[in-house]
Fold this protein.
Amino acid sequence: MIKAGSISKGMFILYKNEPHLIAEREFVNPGKGSAFVRVKLKNLKSGLVIKQTIKSGESVEDIDVIIRNVQYLFADKDNYHFMDSETYEQSTIQIEGLEDKKDFLKEGSNLQIAMWENEPVDIILPFKMSFEVTEAEDGLKGDTVSGATKTITIETGLNVKVPLFIKKGDKILINTETKEYVERAK
């Protein structure tokens, strides 16, 4: 059990007998009354996101989640398929609830998955990932307005706004939380 004040983003807790990830955390200390923590919880089984307020005196149950290094293999209609990098065992995770991860999954990429009670429950993406640009229009000469952008498509099919100098075939880094361009990959 952990106190509400010790809760931090990225922790895994048991809420209403379901595993949840703390997606956001805000500590609030109003002038009147007691302090509390406002959290956004993502259910690791259903993918539903809820907002919850936890008073500072209350405790929540943290859960032990095992992080495994895996290689992404492929997706079928219902599941993502992974192979454990150490044991070569294959795991599947339901796509339902994790649809937002598909934009960052490319065959052969190395990622991590969270396991709870021997069941894979979440895909943990790096903060930034490198992708190849597969479709990009040429930037027009003279179109140099400060901060001008264009929309390109990366190898997973995600559309991203990038600066005009990015061309087809370039490798770029994408922020996996915001789905925004970061920089050219080195």
